[in-house]
Each structure stands twice: as C-alpha cells, then as structure tokens.
Amino acid sequence: NFTAPNATDFRPHSLFTLSRAALSSANNDPSQNVVLVDGVRTPFQTSCSGYEKLMAHDLQKMAISGLLKRTGVEHKDIDHVICGTVIQEPKTSNIAREAMLEAGLPDTIPAHTVTLACISSNVAITDAMGMI
Question: Which is nearest to 55 in space by CA: 109, 94, 107?
C-alpha cells in the first residue's frame, strides 16, 4: 500500500518561491536582486512503485501544498506558478496549472510547465527569475 508523504516530507529541489530582495548592503535597491526563498521536490521512488497509481499533477500538488505550508506564502502574493517535469504526461496538458488548482490556488494565477528532462527545474527557476 502507498501512503502519500506529508507536506513536511518534501526536500528542497524542484519547486521554488522567488522574491526580490537586497543581497548586499552596498546595493540599497532591492528590486535589482532575485532571491530563491525556498523549494521542494517529491521524494525519490523507484520506477513502478509508490507513485505508480498517481498522476503527475497529483505529485506536483503535494509539492505545491508542502511549499505553501512551509513558507506561509499567501495566495495573493503569488503572481505565477512554474513547475519542472522530466517527462510530459499525456493525460495532463499543463501539470503546473492542474496541480496549483488542486492545491487550492485561485484560477486567476497563470501557470506553465517546463518539460526538458533533467534540466526542467533549473529552467523553471530561470524562467521565473526572468519574469520578476
């Protein structure tokens, strides 16, 4: 039997919150710097095991819910959701969108999924930084 992990079981890596903040006292303009605040990923499992019966957006929903719980970020402070995935699951056209809606975020927040194999999370972070 599979037991879904708790929100506190997620480790930094795959889903991130970004914000503008000052990185040094020499630069007094906080709008010039982008800071990675926190991140989560789903725990590793072997193929055809614990996650076998879950859809990709179910796993991503757990990561989003875990990140929101851990950071305390309010829905009103989220401008866009970007998620990375290794392989695009054919039954879900936009994993990030479906996952964020299932995690309780409002449908007024745009979302997109980056699907570029192992580099997807890094590209998702870079995309988000470029949007700020």
Answer: 94
Q: Give the pair of three-digit tokens for residue 75.
A: 């829905």
Give DSSP secondary structure letters for the chain.
---PPPGGG-EEEEEEEEEE----TT---GGG-EEEEEEEEPPP--TTSTTTTS-HHHHHHHHHHHHHHHH---GGG---EEEEESS--TT-S-HHHHHHHHTT--TTS-EEEEE-GGGHHHHHHHHHHHH-
pTM of the model: 0.73
What pLDDT, in 10s, does the model give residues 106-125? 999 999 999 998 899 889 98
What is the tens place of the pLDDT at every residue in 53-97? 889 899 999 999 999 998 888 888 888 999 988 888 888 889 999
Closest CA to 51 of 95, 117, 2: 2
Instruction: Determine how β-strand 111-115 pairs with β-strand 81-85.
Output: parallel
What residues pair up with 19 in beta bridges, in sequence order? Answer: 35
In contact, 71 and 12? CB cutoff 8 Å:
no
